[in-house]
C-alpha cells in the first residue's frame, strides 16, 4: 500500500512540475535572469508550493502518526554550520548553470529532454561525492561532545 501511495504522490508532483514549467530549463533560467528576460511566473509556482506545504505540515503534524507509516521522520538538528551553507550554495550554482534542480531534472529525463542526459548523471555523481565527503569528514557535533 505504501508503495502505491508514494507512486501516486510522485506522479502528482511530476505532473505539477511539467504543468508549472519547472521541467523546462529555459523557463527556469529566464526566472534567474533578473537583468535580461526575467520571467516571474516561477515565483508564483514557488509561492504556491510554500503555502501548500505550510498548510499541509500544520494539518498533518496535528495527527499522532502518519496515515501510512508508524512515525513522522522530522529533522532533529537545527544548528547552522558550514555544510548547511555550502550545500545550498553548490545546489544553487548547479541550478543556475543547468536550469534544473533534482526533481524537475528527473521529470524532464522521463520526458526525454536532451539536456538532462548530461545533467542527471552529473547530478548523481555530485550526490555520491557529497555523501562520500560527508562520511569521511568529522562532524562538528561529534568533536564538541568529547570536551
What characteristics describe this protein?
147 residues; mainly alpha; 0% strand; globular
Describe it.
There is one protein chain. By secondary structure, the protein is mainly alpha-helical. The protein has one domain. The protein has 7 helices and no strands. The protein has helices at residues 2-20, 25-32, 41-60, 82-98, 102-110, 116-136, 140-144. Helix 5 runs antiparallel to helix 6 (116-136). The longest helix is centred in the C-terminal third of the chain and has 21 residues, at 116-136. The chain is globular and about 50 Å long. The protein starts with a helix and ends with a helix. The relative contact order is 0.11. The mean pLDDT is 82.
Quick summary:
With 147 residues, this protein is mainly α. Helices cover 67% and strands 0% of the residues. It has helices at residues 2-20, 25-32, 41-60, 82-98, 102-110, 116-136, 140-144.
> Helix tally?
7
Count of separate structural domains: 1
Secondary structure tally: strands: 0
How large is the radius of gyration?
A: 18 Å
Largest sheet: none
Amino-to-carboxy terminus distance: 47 Å
Which assembly state applies to the chains in this document?
A: single chain
Q: What is the helix content?
A: 55-70%
Shape: globular
Q: What is the helix/strand order? A: HHHHHHH
Computed structural class: mainly alpha
Amino acid at each position: 500500500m505504501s508503495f502505491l501511495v508514494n507512486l501516486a504522490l510522485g506522479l502528482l508532483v511530476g505532473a505539477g512540475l511539467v504543468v508549472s514549467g519547472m521541467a523546462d530549463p529555459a523557463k527556469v533560467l529566464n526566472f534567474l535572469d533578473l537583468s535580461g528576460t526575467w520571467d516571474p511566473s516561477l515565483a508564483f509556482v514557488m509561492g504556491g508550493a510554500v503555502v501548500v506545504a505550510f498548510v499541509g505540515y500544520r494539518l498533518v503534524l496535528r495527527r499522532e502518526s502518519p496515515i501510512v507509516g508508524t512515525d513522522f521522520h522530522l529533522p532533529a538538528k537545527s544548528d547552522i554550520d558550514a555544510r548547511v551553507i555550502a550545500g545550498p550554495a553548490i545546489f544553487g550554482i548547479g541550478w543556475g548553470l543547468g536550469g534544473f534542480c533534482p526533481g524537475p531534472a528527473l521529470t524532464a529525463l522521463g520526458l526525454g529532454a536532451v539536456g538532462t542526459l548530461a545533467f542527471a548523471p552529473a547530478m548523481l555523481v555530485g550526490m555520491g561525492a557529497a555523501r562520500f565527503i560527508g562520511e569521511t569528514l568529522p562532524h562538528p557535533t561529534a568533536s564538541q561532545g568529547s570536551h
